[in-house]
């Protein structure tokens, strides 16, 4: 981002921070800490767009008016059902079994606020899981990696062992589609 404006990332996700840092985008972190519960029968794409917008708005209301706020929200979508973060190991196991041997969508809503301007986009990618054996499932759950991850897996970590194929942006699957985010940031700082 070629601007003198400060960029505030409205997220506590270490993955988003790592992704931004990997492309040389300096930023500070200020999590929004909002209720991320889906609304009844909410479409997964509408959900991530709404949550990313709400995160950005909450953080923008707390910071100086001359900063740029970036927020994102990622969810796993299987058959139109939102798979958020598991509440415990049993919930993670149920999610992973639901994904086993199937293709699902990963959607990330990205919102950039700069003054009165809003730039946003939803990026979707596909992930196909291997048919998970009981041994592979037990091993993965034993890593503890599924805690705090949408869909109960992290493709950038041990979760890569569960994946047969991907289509689309890998950084989106990790939690922040870099190409699209950089374009939104450029538009917001023109």
Automatic annotation (TrEMBL):
Origin organism of this chain? freshwater metagenome
Pfam family, any one = Maf
Q: Name one GO molecular function term.
A: nucleoside triphosphate diphosphatase activity
What cofactor is needed?
a divalent metal cation
Q: State the protein's name.
A: Unannotated protein
- Say yes or no: keyword Hydrolase present: yes
Q: Record's NCBIfam families? A: maf (TIGR00172)
Keyword Hydrolase among record annotations: yes
Which UniProt keywords are given for this protein, alphabetically ordered? Hydrolase
